[in-house]
Amino acid sequence: MLAATGATLAALALTACEDGTGTEDEGAGSTSRPTATATTDTPSDAGKDDSAAGDPTAAGGGSQEAGGGKNTGSGGKDTGSGGEGGNTDDDKTDEGADDGPDTRVACNGSNTTVTARPVSRPLNHMLITVKNTGSGPCDLTYYPVLRFDEMQWVPQPIEETKPQAVVGIDPGESAYAGVLLSAADGSGDGGTTGHKLAVGFQGRTPNSSGGPSAIPSLPAKGVYYDSTLAVSYWQQSMDDALTY
To answer: What element of type H or E holds 142?
Structure first.
């Protein structure tokens, strides 16, 4: 009986231990299990971290490689830009080449000597001579712009004398223009005597400036002119300048 009673008490105690102390042991076990679980999770998380770290590294490497590719592309673009720049230079060179052949300059008071003298025939005429004193050829365009003293009007050209092309003068050579000073029959009015003459030069377009004027000497007694004063276009020969 006692033995049975003791066995029963032992069983109850064991049951109590399992219900009480056992629960605490399980709680401790639970505590260690989470720890174990955390320990188990930690390598897993570490693995994830390593994987994640690996991915960014790979991505970073890829990005760097891509970046390198982009940089290479940019270099290619820069090279392309250089190529385009080269084309631009070629275009400029072409433009310069277009402008290059046109190296002739305008004849004017700075690269010529100009004389003006009345002639006996035809009557009431004066001859203007322009001699190229420069080192290269120069061109005379249109007709001389004449101004006696303080004249307020410009003598008009004689259209019949207009040449077929611009008159060019080589160094040391001359070109000419004829001036009708007054009407032979006396039909002109406002006659006066000029003592100073300015000879103006035109540029590539009508009435534009071709450079400095020339002031040739006139006879001491001056030159008589009236309202019929007119001038020829520039001519290659003296005869052409005085034939009209």
So the answer is: strand 138-148
Distance from the Cα of residue 10 to its chain's centroid: 111
pLDDT number for residue 88: 41
92-130 pLDDT per residue, tens: 333 333 334 456 899 999 999 999 999 999 999 999 999
Q: How many CB atoms lie within 10 A of CB 181?
A: 23
Residue 163 token pair: 């040449």
Size (the chain), residues: 244
* Segments in the chain below pLDDT 50: 1-101
The Cα–Cα gap between 109 and 211 comes to: 7
Measured distance CA(132)–CA(114) in Å, rounded: 9
**Structure tokens that stand for 151 in this block:** 């004249």
- What is the pLDDT at residue 52? 40
Q: Match domain 105-241 to its CATH number in 2.40.128, 1.10.357, 2.60.40, 3.40.720.
A: 2.60.40
The CA–CA distances, whole Å, from 74 to 63, 64, 86, 117, 143 equal 15, 14, 18, 74, 60
The domain limits of the chain are 105-241
Residue with tokens 């955390």: 38
pLDDT value of position 185: 86
Q: Which of 116, 207, 225 is nearest to 157 (CA)?
A: 207
**In this structure, what are the phi and psi dihedrals at residue 186, rounded to the nearest 5 degrees?**
75, 15
